[in-house]
Amino acid sequence: MSGDGTVGKACEVLDQVAAFNRPVRFGELLDSSNFPKATLYRFLQTLTNQGMLSYDAERQTYSLGMRLVRLAHSAWTHSSLAPVARPYIDTLSHQLGETVHLAQLDSSQVLYVDKRNAHEPVEMFSQAGKVGPAYCTGVGKAMMAYLPEDALARTISQQSFHRFTDQTLCSEADLRAELSAIRDRGYAFDREEHEPGIICIAAPILTENGRMLGALSITGPTNRTNYDQLTEWAPNVTMTAAQIGREAQNWRFPESQSNEKAAS
To answer: What is the pLDDT of residue 158?
Structure first.
């Protein structure tokens, strides 16, 4: 349970509602809540009154409110790489015809902040706004490889190392060896480590002084993409990541500020 008082507890309730990915009834929330019935109800009422949640009286369900949508749009505009990166990922997507992801680190996880679908889209986990594991995704490993050591150690300590597929790296030693290889070549692969049949190549987005801002990836299904093809795309993805890094050089992002602090 959060140690940040009332605000932290309210955020827990928002996270709980969001985790259902659909309108949710009070009883469903109570079944999985850390709070007593009266406390949970009070938080739901307050969050609804503040526009952070929306209540459908007819269906008796709660969902995320429009105030959160406005806040999310503002965060996307001012606190993410997405606006500055948009023209570059548009061009990359048009050139290669496969799925392009843009991501940043959020509390030791991958936050997908933008995405361009392939000319022939394939269903996959990643969507803009979704959070995923860092240790078994191309963008996650590309970002972790360029963290300062203290930030990297903290990030690794928060990985679950759950085995999603037979290819998933499930130990700190294996992950660190992989991150060293990524630093040597300048880009990362996802070798079906998170989803069977999905592979990618990813490059870190760095400022000129090496501050890590995020990562960019090209992703495809194994039925039409292979590792030789991904390697051929390495110049495309690394050049585009470098362009975004130069463009974003003077922008200040919440995650990059904490990384910079860790490096000092």
So the answer is: 94
User: 48 is in which domain, residue-wise?
Assistant: 5-70
Name residues whose C-beta falls within 8 Å of residue 242's C-beta, 6 or more positions apart in sequence: 206
pLDDT value of residue 173: 97
User: What's the CA gap between 101 and 216, in Å, rounded?
Assistant: 6
Q: Which of residues 37, 52, 70 is at a domain's end?
A: 70
Q: What is the pLDDT of residue 159?
A: 95
Kindly report the CATH number assigned to the domain that includes residue 186: 3.30.450.40
Determine the pLDDT at residue 84: 87
Q: Enter the pTM of the model.
A: 0.69
Q: Please identify every stretch of the chain with a pLDDT value under 50, giving residue numbers as ranges.
A: 1-2, 121, 254-264
State the Cα–Cα distance between residues 29 and 61, nearest whole angstrom.
Answer: 10
Residues 169 and 220 in one domain: yes
The pLDDT, as a whole number, for residue 2 is 47
Kindly state whether residue 75 falls inside one of the protein's structural domains: no
Q: What is the 3-state secondary structure (H, E, C) of the chain?
A: CCCCHHHHHHHHHHHHHHHCCCCEEHHHHHHCCCCCHHHHHHHHHHHHHCCCEEEECCCCEEEECHHHHHHHHHHHHHHCCHHHHHHHHHHHHHHHCCEEEEEEEECCEEEEEEEECCCCCCCCCCCCCCEECCCCCHHHHHHHCCCCHHHHHHHHHCCCCCCCCCCCCCCHHHHHHHHHHHHHHCCEEEECCCCCCEEEEEEEEECCCCCEEEEEEEEEECCCCCHHHHHHCHHHHHHHHHHHHHHCCCCCCHHHHHHHHHHC
Shared domain check, 103 and 34: no
